[in-house]
Amino acid sequence: MKRYLKKIKFSEKDSVKVLGAKWDPAKKRWYVPEHLLLAPFAKWLPVRLLKKCAAEESAAKSEPVKVVTPPFWLDDDENESSDSK
Questions:
Q1: pTM for this model (two decimals)
Q2: Does the pLDDT of residue 32 top 70, yes or no?
């Protein structure tokens, strides 16, 4: 289900676009894709989504943060290829 924003002023379209909102040409409205949090869009959310936004924020605070680091071999391969030249 698409999470549509309130009507966006033309002067604000770049702001929502930078945050990751997408344009639905059929409905001529901006929406927030499912993989994005709603909090950055709070200014433009309808009331029903503001409640969901608050629930997302409290869930995000209670979940542990995963830190993902790239494999160390990535650095080694880069060094080996430059050494062999």
A1: 0.62
A2: yes
